[in-house]
C-alpha cells in the first residue's frame, strides 16, 4: 500500500511540474501576443474616435451598451414634443466624435473611419440614421455637450424612469 | 459581524445617543447627499447629477420643455404686398431646409411654391405662396397608417420620418398638394432638417427655428425683400399681431369649404 501511495504521489509531482513548466513557457507567448498587434483578437477590436471634450455625456461603458436606447428616447421627445435640449442628441455625438479625413474635412459615414462605423462594421449592425441625418457636423454649428445643470437633471430623470 | 451593544463599542454600526464629530460630519454628508441624485448606471458605475428643477428656456439655449397647446402657430400672408414673380420665400425655404430641384420637375420635393391665379371675369390677378397649411384637422394625419404624420401640440403638422413608411397616402389626402416624396438618395443634409429617400416631407413651419424662438425662414426672407407680406405668430394669443390683424381685417383660408381650420391665412385674396 505504501509503495502504491508513493507511486501516485510521484506521478502527481511530475504532472504538477509539467503544468508549471508549460505555464511558464506560455507567459512569453502571451507577452509576445500583446506586443505584436497583427493577427491578435485585441488588435481586431474597434477603436472608435475619441470625443473632443474630457468625457462623454455618460460613462463610456454605459454608452457602449445603451446609446441606441437614449438616442431613440431623445429623438421622440424632439420630434413630437419639440424638446431640443438634452445630452443625447445625435448631432452632439456627430460633432464631438468627428473624424478628420485626408482632405481636412470631417469624414461622412461612407468612410470606414467614421465614428459610428468603426464599431458598427465590427459588430455587423446596420444603422439607418444617416439615410436622413447628416453624418458629419455642419460647418458653423456648435457641438452640444452635457454642460448645464438642466441637462444633468434631465438625464437623471430619464435614468430613474421619471421622464415624461 | 459583531453584534451591536447599544452604541458603546467603537465598531458599532448603529446610531448612538451622543454625537461625535465623525457622526456630525456623516449627518452633514447625508443631508447634502439628498441634494444629489446618485444613479447606478451599471455595477461599479454611478452618476451624480444635481436634482434640480428644469428652469425656463434661456435665450440662446435649446428648448427644454415640451410644447403645449397654449400656443397655435400660424401665418398670415397679405397678398396685396406679395409681389408676382418674387420667389424670395421659396428660395429661403430651399436654402434653409436643403431641398432643391433634382431635374425631375414632376416628382421633385417642393415645400413651398408660388401660385398665380386670375379671375377670368374681372381680370384680378393674385400671386400667393402655397405650402402646408398646418390644418387643425389635418387629412394627412387621418390617413397615415403608422402615425408618422402628426400634429404637434402647438399646431405644427409634421412627418416623423423615423416611422414613415413612404406609402404616400398623405400626399394623396392633402388638398393643397403640399407634400412631396423623396425619390433620390440625399447627402449632406442640414443637421436640423434631416431628410432622406423613401419618406414624405412638407413645410415644417421651420420648427427648429420656432423652437429656438425665431421666425420661419420664408417670413424673414419676405421682410428682407422689403415686402413684409408674411406675419408669423400665435393664433391663440389675442394680443399677437397676427390675431389682431385677423380680428381687424377679413382673411381667407384656402378651401375653407373643407373646414380644416388652417393655420395659414390669406389677406386680400
Overview of this protein structure:
The complex is a heterodimer of chains A (164) and B (269). With 164 residues, chain A is an all-alpha fold. Chain A has helices spanning 2-35, 41-44, 60-81, 90-96, 115-123, 149-159. Chain A has two domains: 2-43; 60-159, no CATH class. The longest helix of chain A is centred in the N-terminal third of the chain and has 34 residues, at 2-35. Chain B folds into two domains: 21-50, no CATH class; 73-267, Alpha-Beta Plaits (2-Layer Sandwich). Chain B is built from seven helices and twelve strands. Chain B has helices spanning 21-33, 88-97, 139-143, 169-173, 207-210, 217-224, 241-248, and strands at residues 36-42, 45-50, 73-78, 112-118, 125-131, 149-151, 157-159, 180-181, 200-201, 230-234, 251-252, 264-267. At the A-B interface, helix 3 and helix 6 of A face strand 1, strand 2 and helix 5 of B.
Mean pLDDT of chain A: 77
Helix content of chain A: 40-55%
Distance N to C terminus of chain A: 78 Å
Q: Measure the end-to-end span of chain B.
A: 87 Å
Determine the CATH topology of the largest domain in chain B: Alpha-Beta Plaits
What overall geometry of chain A do the principal axes of the alpha carbons give?
A: elongated
Output the structural class of chain A.
Answer: mainly alpha
In total, how many beta strands of chain A? 0
SSE string of chain B: HEEEHEEHEEHEEHHEHEE
